[in-house]
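It is worth pausing here to work through a concrete case rather than discussing structure prediction in the abstract. The textbook approach is simple: state the sequence, then state the predicted structure, then interpret. We follow exactly that order.
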Amino acid sequence: MIDIHSHIIFNIDDGAASIEESITLCRQASENGYKKIVATPHFTDYRNIDRFVLERDSKLDLIRERLAEEKIDITLYPGAELFLSRGIFTAGDLDALTINSSRYMLCEFPLGPFNVRSGLEMLSELTLRGYTPIVAHPERYHEFRRNYEIIYGLVDQGVIFQVNADCLAGNIDRTARSISAELIQEGFAKFIGSDAHDANRRNLNIRERISAFPSEIDSDDLKNCFITNPQSVIDNEDVF
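Step two, the predicted structure:
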């Protein structure tokens, strides 16, 4: 399996607090059937892209060294979870923030109320630049939960979605569970991500979550969301 949304890099955001926790998360992932993980630390400062990328990549290298030493069979790829803000319009080259130097870019909105029109403009700016936005955990956003029709407009714009395993398993609330399942059934959500932040509560023990997924999420859905589509992103190929 492949996880395209994780916060396993230590001391870069609100994810793993130490390199030891990074390694623990990777070990959990391996024990649960993952082979590849995209590290997507939160990104907010569009004036300091180079600094962010340098820190991300140097810490990824340290984690890779430890994984090799401890013989943990996980391959790591660089990415970011971009917080959508007006900084997008004045930022320079964003290529280093994509998933594995592809055209795919993981993005997030505020969880609380936000200006939907402004958010759509930001995603439009990314698509005009040649990127394919992947909106992280749409089932968690207040505005999407209040008005599901926003989803259809984004799909028409070429946006695709990633739902969180916790939400699909019902660990957040019933609304998040039903929206995430519906997004997969409609073919809008192409990925199920862990959004792992720590080795305890928000971890990579995915098997227990999969067992709690709604019954309509079948083996084909799981294969597409955990293997086929994430691999297409890593390879910069079309996602269907």
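Step three, interpretation. The chain has one domain: 2-234. Residues 2-234 form a domain with the TIM Barrel fold (CATH 3.20.20.140).
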